Amino acid sequence: MGKVDFKRRLIADLTRWKHSAYRKPLLLMGARQVGKTSLLKAFGASEFKHTAYFNFEEKPELAQFFEKTKDVTRILQNLSLIHGATITPGDTLIIFDEIQECRPALNTLKYFHENAPEYIVAGAGSLLGITLGKEGSFPVGQVDFLSVHPLIFSEFLLGLNPSLSKYLESFEQIEPIPDIFFNDLVEKFKMYFISGGLPEPASTLLETNDLELVQRQLSNIQNAYALDFSKHTATKDIPKIGFIWNSLPSQLARENKKFMFQAVKTGARARDYEDALLWLTQAGLVHKVSRCIKPNLPLSAYDDLSAFKIYLLDVGLLRNLAQLDPMAFKEGNRLFTEFKGALTENYILQAVLPQFETTPRYWTSEGIAEVDFLIQYKNTIIPVEVKSDENIRSKSLSYYHKTYSPPLRIRYSLKNLNLNDGVLNIPLFMADYTRHLIDIAMRSL
Hints:
By secondary structure, the chain is of the alpha/beta class. It has helices at 10-19, 36-47, 63-67, 72-83, 103-115, 128-132, 153-160, 162-169, 179-195, 199-208, 211-231, 238-253, 270-282, 315-321, 334-352, 395-404, 434-444, and strands spanning 26-29, 50-55, 92-97, 120-125, 144-147, 286-292, 303-312, 361-364, 370-377, 380-386, 409-413, 418-420, 423-427.
């Protein structure tokens, strides 16, 4: 197939931001290579007459405009000269890319908000989480935020097969998917597990089907992350970050997947590695899922601070880091079931995170049962079980139901879509629609 330009759901969020009466300068948060720049450029092309793009990593000399003055009018005059045309409010989207490389520009967003709110400004940076974690970055309350995650499967599918994507979008009731569609969706979902959701390898897979090139691109992205480890963190933490990163496939391969500092390196202690783990979290490269002591509202009030799981930002990266050959996708459901379903569980978290305000937790009961995730939606806590195949027996979900009687339980598996006795079975490839399917299910209970 030809060139693939993925249509991101976040375009709708950006459009709402543009038209909001309370709009502030926007910062896009997300790891390197998740598509922040292409998202902003696509937004500029579709919603504005002009886009003025400035990259502080490519042109560090731009920093001088912000170091010498906080006068937004003067800054805009200088930027217009670089842009080659007058930057007009409303008609032009101003993009500050890799803005974490220029602290004065980050601080200037305050003055855009206070003194020139008619200008529409969006900034992006691959390590903004790290930058904003330090003191003196910019005044709190002066910007809006939007998190950018890797492509979800529905966005990947839209680039691969628009008609199948439209079919999934059309669901308004819980009913089985015809086999001819179901089987095709499973095969396309396997393709997604090969590339993951980082736009470059994903588009390469769809455009060329060159698995070797996809592998190389994923490895290059991992190498770029490793360079970030060494460039943007304290020297003492560089090897520690690397040890944690490389340990993640084996951490997730264990039965309960709880993160163990001792598994990072022999003799490793939590207090010695906590800063390194925090760096990976703030950089957006990993997600931390805490154990919930008691499933009450709000979930955050019942975190066990000593027990948590760590997942990668992207399932394709995890597959590549684990050195699982992409040819495994030809061997039935092996790609989903390898190392105790860790790829599948990682993907479900990846799909669920953008849909809910609260990060999921997990729950255990003293060796009796373990529920993979707890989702907080409105005033309901929903237990989630992830099955990487068609085997849907779930003692833990049954035990949780007997103990807490939730109105709805969710099971992800390779079984068809259905709602039976309070259990909503969602096919793995429909995880992106979890929130919508919950709404439908709750209306019918």
